[in-house]
Amino acid sequence: MALIEIENLSVTFRSKGHLVRAVQDVSLSVGDGESYGLVGESGSGKSTILRAICGLAPVTGGTIRIAGQPVPDPRGRDFSRQVQMVFQDPYASLHPRHTLDRVLSEPLAIHGVKGDADRAVMQALDDVGLPRAFRFRYPHQLSGGQRQRVAIARALMLKPRIVLLDEPTSALDASVQAEVLNLLSRLRAERGLTFLMVSHDLAVIDHMCDRVLVMQHGRAVEELNHADLAGAGMKTDYARTLFEASADRML
C-alpha cells in the first residue's frame, strides 16, 4: 500500500520580485515501510517537496495524499501524529533555552498525550543512544551528532508512521554521519517507519533508501531502485554524473 502519494505536484512562489517554479509536475509514491530518497543538487526542489507535504510551501498544483487521504490545510494535529520532520541543522531546529527534557516532552503536552511523560522522555533518550543524565542539558552543551539524535527523538515522540528527513547528516562529519544513518536505519526497522529522505549525496541515499528519485531544476529526472544504484544502471546523463561524484563515498 502506498502511504505517501504525490501526483503532479507544483510549487510556485515569488522571491525578490521573480516567480520561482521550485517544483514542477512531480509525482512519486512511497510504500508503507519503505525508505524513499530525493536526490539532486541545491535548488533542485527536493527539500521543497518535504516542505509542501508539511504545509510549509505553497502547493500551486497537484495532490498530496497520506494513507489514501488528501492532506488537510492547515495540517492540524492528526497530520502531526502521522508525519514528522527532521531538519538539516540540529542546532537551529532545537530551542537554545529549552532543556532536552522540555524539548522532548513538549510534543506530548501540545498534543494532549496522556501517560508518564518522564518515562517517555527517558525512553526516548535510550532509543537514540543518549545517556539519561543528558535530560536537563541544553542544546549548546551537546555535540552536533548528539543534537541530531535529540531532533530524531523529538520527531518520534508522537509515534508517527512517516518521518521526513531533510539532509539530516549533511552538517555532521563523516564518522558521526555514519552513526546517525545507522541509528535511523535501526529505528526504521524496529518501528516499521516510512522514510522520505532528501540528500544531495547519492552515497547517503545508497545506504538508506530502497528507491530514489533524481531531481533537477524542480523536475523529476529519473527514478532508480537499489539495484540500479548498485549496478550504476542510470539512464540519464545527469543521474550518472551524480553517481560518479558520489561513487568513492558509497557506504
From TrEMBL:
MF annotations from Gene Ontology: ATP binding; ATP hydrolysis activity
Subcellular location: Cell inner membrane; Membrane
Record membrane topology: Peripheral membrane protein
Entry EC no(s): 7.4.2.10
GO cellular component: plasma membrane
Major site of localization recorded for this protein: membrane
Group of enzyme by EC: translocase
Biological process per Gene Ontology, one example term: transmembrane transport
Residue stretches making up the ABC transporter domain: 4-242
Xref: PANTHER family: GLUTATHIONE IMPORT ATP-BINDING PROTEIN GSIA (PTHR43776:SF15), TRANSPORT ATP-BINDING PROTEIN (PTHR43776)
Role noted for this protein: Part of the ABC transporter complex GsiABCD involved in glutathione import. Responsible for energy coupling to the transport system.
Assembly with partners or alone: The complex is composed of two ATP-binding proteins (GsiA), two transmembrane proteins (GsiC and GsiD) and a solute-binding protein (GsiB).
Family: Belongs to the ABC transporter superfamily. Glutathione importer (TC 3.A.1.5.11) family.
Protein name: Glutathione import ATP-binding protein GsiA
Protein source organism: Aliigemmobacter aestuarii
